[in-house]
Amino acid sequence: MKGLKKEFHKLNPEDRLFGLSVPLIGLTGSIATGKSAASAFFSEMGCPIICADALVKTIYSKPSAISFIKTISHECVKNNNQIDFKALRKVFFSSEEIKSKVESFIYTQIPETFLEEFKKFNSPNFVIYDVPLLFEKNMDTKFDITLCIYTTKLLQIERLIKRDQIEKNLAEKIIKSQIDIERKKQLADYYIDNSKSKEKLLENIKAFSNEIFE
User: Whole-angstrom Cα distance, residue 75 to residue 87?
Assistant: First the structure.
């Protein structure tokens, strides 16, 4: 894989997210649609990928984040001074005020953390940014291409309950907090169906890659 075909170099650096000098592909979806599996497949193919969730984990590991979460709820920090993400998720989705405070704390640190990761690549021709809330945060115009990993809402709920061992009402609340997956499918430049097996997902990713990569 040499890189992204020239016709997909759509934006100038000043118009891209974080002023990135190379084309940016926005990989999105909704929780439990299989975005992480798709991201892993792209990585195995040699694509340079930055994952928003990984950036958030980096930020959460900092002492300043732990101190901040303690101001939200002491129950969200374990005795070993590590964040209890299961407890934080419950608090996060129980209050719009808390949700807003946590998001504000995290998102102000994302640009710097992203650019630190970008510097680790060796002159890439493009970068894939794996970001769940691409449309929720109105970032789509800052990407050269947007790609949605799609599955039905019923399958989303089923996968989320099984994956995170949570009750159905919490799963539905989490999914409801994001833009409906059917809407994301419409908004994205491209979508890849992940309603079947991992083998089928890989097949669909290869077909997409053949279209946009050299």
Answer: 7
Q: What is the spatial distance between Cα 112 and Cα 155, in angstroms, rounded to a whole number? A: 35
Report which secondary-structure segment, H or E, holds 27. strand 24-28
Domain map of the chain by residue range? Answer: 16-48+124-214, 54-120
What's this model's pTM, rounded to 2 decimal places? 0.88
In the chain, what's the furthest Cα-to-Cα distance? Answer: 53
The amino acid at 88: L
Fold of the CATH domain 16-48+124-214: Rossmann fold (3.40.50)
Q: 87-137: per-residue pLDDT in tens?
A: 998 889 888 999 899 999 999 999 999 999 999 999 999 999 999 999 999
Residue (of 30, 49, 32) closest to 40 by Cα position: 49
Spatial separation of the C-alpha atoms in residues 139 and 107, rounded to whole Å: 13
- Upper half-sphere CA count for residue 155 (Cβ side, 13 Å): 14
d(CA 129, CA 147): 10
Query: 63: closest CA among 40, 89, 44, 83?
Result: 83
Q: What is the pLDDT of residues 147-174, one digit of tens each?
A: 999 999 999 999 999 999 999 999 999 9
> What single letter denotes the amino acid at residue 112?
E
Handedness of CA 108, 110, 15, 131 (dihedral sign): negative
* DSSP bridge partners of 145: 25
